[in-house]
Structure formats: C-alpha cells, structure tokens
Amino acid sequence: MSAELNRLEPGGTPAVEAVGIECGYGGDPILTDLSFTVRAGEVFFIIGGSGCGKSTLLRHLVGLNRPTAGDVRFFGESFLEAGALTRRDLLKRFGVLYQGGALWSSLTLMENVALPLEEYTKLTRRERSDLAAFKLSQVGLAGYENYYPSEISGGMKKRAGLARALALDPAIVFFDEPSAGLDPITSRKLDELILQVRALQGTTCVVVSHELDSIFSIADRVLMLDRSAKGAIAIGDPRVLAAESSDPRVREFLHRGARPGEKGFDSGRSAKH
User: Fold this and answer.
1) In whole angstroms, what is the distance from residue 223 CA to residue 43 CA?
2) What is the mean pLDDT of the segment spanning 161-165?
3) Which of 81, 158, 245, 258 has the fewest CB atoms within 10 Å, measured from its CB?
4) Among residues 210, 216, 218, 221, which one has the least CA distance to residue 192?
5) Strand order in 231-236's β-sheet?
6) What is the pLDDT of residues 102-132, one digit of tens each?
7) What is the pTM of this model?
8) Which domains does the chain have, with CATH numbers?
9) Cβ(177)–Cβ(99) under 8 Å?
10) 39 and 15 in contact (C-beta within 8 Å)?
11) What is the mean pLDDT of the chain?
12) Nearest alpha carbon to residue 90 among 70, 63, 67, 108
C-alpha cells in the first residue's frame, strides 16, 4: 500500500476512516491492508471493476460484516470496538441506501421511512408520520406516502430508500450502486439529489458505483479498488486521475466512453462546481 493511500487526509477528523482492514467471507480475503479516509462533507466514490470488492467493502464499513483485521472509525471513534450503547449512537449517525432500495413490501412508503424513527427516537406516532412525510417530500415523493413499494417505479424506490436513510438526519449516508437498473435521466436526477442532500445538510456521501457519468459529475474523490491487487490502486479527484494517472488500470477504467477533451468528459465539472 502506498503512502498516498495511507496518509491522513487534511481537514480535521475524518468522517470515515478505514485502518488496515481485511475483508472477506472466509477463505482468501478479497481486500487486504486497506487504509483510507473520507473527509467530512465530501462525495466520495468507491469504484472499480466487477469482483474488486466494492460492495464487500461497503458491507464491512457499515457493520453488516466484521473485518478480519483492522478497524473502522467514524469521526475518530472505533465502530468495531465500541460498546453496545456507543455503537447504537454511531449507528444513528449514518444511513444506508441499499442497491435495490430494500423497502419492506408489506409497509407503505411512510411506514418504511418511519421505521428508524420508531427504533431510535421517542417521537410519538403522529410525529413519526409527520417527519416521514417530510423526508419523502425532500426526495420528491410528496403525495406517495400511502403507496406500497410494488406500486412505484424503480427510481421512486431508490428515492424512498434515500428518504429512509435520511430519516435520522445522519452525518454520513452510504449508497450501494444507486444508479443500478435506472435509465440515464433517472440516474442523473438521483445524482442531483445526492448533491442536494450534501448541500442542504452537509452530509458526507460514500457511494459505491462503476457509472462513469455519476463519477465525473458528482464525485469529489474516488477510491479505486482492483481485484488482482486485493486493495486500492488509486485515490483522488477522478478528473485528475483520468488525465494524469500512470497506472494503466486506472486509465482504462476511467477512459471507458469519453476521453479527456472529448465531449462529455468535462461535463461533470460544471455540474459539480
């Protein structure tokens, strides 16, 4: 692992910090000795080809699986070594948008969004319903409170899942392939929604994705994983990496489709800035 990938990023205590973590599901690890930081308030993408460990890393960061080595810290506090009460408090500080939305099919959208409020707050039923309706309105789903997941489109399910992830006003939101299965227009609207969440609430956004349009449009920095390396091979601004990286694996991945200087390559710069 290079010093560049291991160094502490500037700007105070990181929102997320992985320290020498090893990830896998038994047998040979998928990722080894991986260290990186995510700055508070940035849109940080985890990218790479199929099978490189993007979703595996996400599962280990949010506590669905425990790394076989290393540590994960949120705002300087260990998530893995925390006691039950501290861990519960840390869980309230981040939300997760799963790839398929992961909505309960037997519950309305309002009831889905209200679930974390019921689990982690002392709000009354009416207060939970009012807040859930507000969160749905934030993602453009006002008027759909009493719909069931089977009654809405895939893009709307993603937005409903985001509303639930935002229910507790988390400091960090993790996104697992948010654009998967969406058409380009719906995908672009979801990217814009991610930027709105960051702008309005200062939320740190960690996004697992391989979609170049999203990467170049909204990412502040990317961490690129590689299957053969069992870890990270690059970190930084994707536009800079695409133009300047000396690693052919990085250039090949980021130069799929438009190349630097071609129409579309720099379109994300204006969208983000």
Assistant:
1) 11
2) 92
3) 81
4) 218
5) 94-97, 172-176, 204-208, 43-47, 221-226, 231-236
6) 899 999 999 999 999 998 899 999 999 999 9
7) 0.86
8) 3-93+170-272 (3.40.50.300), 100-169 (no CATH)
9) yes
10) yes
11) 87
12) 63
Degrees (nearest 5) of the Cα angle 191, 196, 201? 135
Residue 208, strand partner residues: 46, 176
pLDDT at 62: 92
Kindly state the DSSP code that residue 56 receives in the 8-state scheme: H
pLDDT tens profile 210-250: 899 999 999 999 999 999 999 999 999 999 999 999 999 99
List all residues 6 or more positions away from 2 whose beta carbon is below 8 Å from its beta carbon: none
pLDDT band at 268 (very low <50, low <70, confident <90, very high): very low
The bridge status of strand 204-208 relative to strand 172-176 is: parallel
Per-residue confidence (pLDDT) for residue 257, from 0 to 100 = 56
List the Cα angle 210/78/84 in 5-degree steps. 110
The string of DSSP letters for 205-230 reads: EEEE---HHHHHHH-SEEEEEETTTT
State the residue for tokens 């509303």: 163
Instruction: Identify which of 127, 121, 122, 189 has the alpha carbon closest to the alpha carbon of residue 155.
Output: 189
Whole-number Å distance between alpha carbons of 150 and 143: 16
Beta bridge partners of 23: 31
Please name the residues in contact with 82: beta carbons below 8 A apart, sequence gap of 6 or more.
90
Q: Which two tokens stand for residue 4?
A: 């560049």
